[in-house]
Specification:
Layout: H1 3-6, E1 20-27, E2 30-35, E3 38-44, H2 46-51, E4 64-70, E5 73-79, E6 85-88, E7 98-102, E8 106-112, H3 119-132, E9 135-141, H4 149-155, E10 165-167, H5 176-180, E11 188-193, H6 199-207, E12 232-235, E13 241-244, H7 258-261, H8 263-269, H9 286-292, H10 298-314, H11 318-330, H12 333-348
Parallel strand pairs: 3-5, 8-9, 8-11, 9-10, 11-13
Antiparallel strand pairs: 1-2, 1-4, 2-3, 4-5, 6-7, 12-13
Subcellular location: Cytoplasm
Cofactor: Zn(2+)
Family: Belongs to the TRAFAC class YlqF/YawG GTPase family. RsgA subfamily.
């Protein structure tokens, strides 16, 4: 088995291409790319940089690329089509997007069974994972620190319906064998989650060595500190391929599949009296009826509506977004101007 086959190369990836490589790490504008000849540093060619229109089109960990070798550095000429890509909104006010990982079969959404536990956070991660094209698996870590595991699993019943949920602990090795069966040779998986939930500890266990730095979460509030600072791809002893990602204290959504994450609400909405029902105050709303009858958690509907708005906003440009918010608050720009005029008249009195 050659280098690229170890990193997941299959015939569909154009195995005869001598200029093929896979991005295994990224450090700002420099990339580490594995080829059949070994690992080399690479940068994006000027031509490709000019052609790419969005930050999410630039190479990312997991990407298959075509590159040329010039003296001691590779030059990436092309990013091959991705079969899956996990994207989040980048930090800051501009909507640019950031690729977390690409060409992944399974994404492990990690959440610890302490104060970090939050079903609403799982919904946010599921929204972007379903949109990525990969299969989500929810991993509940640090079960050795939890006395009410069954209660927490029950809280996730609606959120994780049809999704595999694994309860595990690195300390007493609960659930680790089950988790490892989902990391097959030449298959690429990624671990995502908040800081301090134990992603690096899990990967270290599967590596059989403490290769990734880990830090304990603060005992005062169970919040973790960023340990992994960049994305990198690792080969496990069993041949599985793992992408470790930095912890995300705040997950902002660029694109997402809300209907898949909230399939229960999507199905209920089909029985609403009005096709464009917003599930607020309309008569004949099947979703509100389900809440009143105790079949649906009101917090889940609140989360659904919030994520639906976020996804809608992220797909608008800044001017459209401004108009959308004005319409939501005032009804229209005309109404906003009237409200502003009214306030000015009050101040003059």
């Amino acid at each position: 088995m050659n280098n690229l086959e170890k990193y997941g190369l299959i015939k569909e990836n154009n195995q005869t291409n001598q200029n093929l490589g896979r991005v295994i790490a990224q450090h700002r504008d420099l990339y580490q790319v594995v080829t059949n000849e070994g690992v080399l540093e690479a940068k994006v060619s000027g031509k490709l940089r000019y052609q790419l229109e969005s930050p999410i089109e630039f190479p990312a960990v997991g990407d298959w690329v075509e590159l040329e070798t010039k003296i001691d550095i590779g030059v990436i000429q092309k990013v091959l089509p991705r079969k899956s890509v996990l994207v989040r909104e980048s930090s800051g006010s501009s909507s640019k997007g950031q690729v977390i990982a690409s060409n992944i079969e399974t994404i492990f959404i990690c959440m610890s069974l302490n104060h970090n536990f939050n079903p609403r956070r799982v919904e946010r991660f599921l929204t972007i994972v379903w949109d990525s094209g990969a299969t989500p698996v929810v991993v509940l870590t640090k079960s050795d620190q939890c006395d009410d595991v069954e209660e927490k699993l029950q809280a996730l019943e609606d959120v994780c319906f049809g999704i595999k949920v694994i309860v595990c602990s690195v300390i007493d090795e609960t659930g680790l064998a089950e988790l490892q069966t989902l990391i097959q040779p030449q298959q690429t998986v990624a671990f995502v989650g908040s800081s301090g939930v134990g992603k690096s500890s899990l990967i270290n266990h599967f590596l059989g060595q403490d290769l990734l730095e880990t830090k304990q979460i603060r005992g005062s509030d169970d919040k973790g500190r960023h340990t992994t600072t960049s994305r990198e791809m690792l080969i496990l002893p069993n041949g599985g391929i793992v992408i470790d990602t930095p912890g995300m204290r705040e997950l902002q959504i660029l694109t997402g599949d809300v209907s898949k994450t909230f399939e229960d609400i999507t199905e209920l909405a089909k029985d609403c009296k009005f096709r464009d029902c917003t599930h607020q105050n309309e008569p004949g709303c099947a979703v509100k009826k389900a809440i009143d009858e105790g079949f649906l958690d009101a917090d889940r509907l609140t989360s659904y509506l919030k994520l639906q708005r976020e996804v809608s906003y992220s797909q608008l440009n800044s001017r459209q977004l401004e108009n959308q918010k004005i319409n939501q608050i005032f009804g229209s720009k005309k109404a906003m101007k009237q409200s502003r005029k009214h306030m000015q008249q009050i101040k003059r009195r």
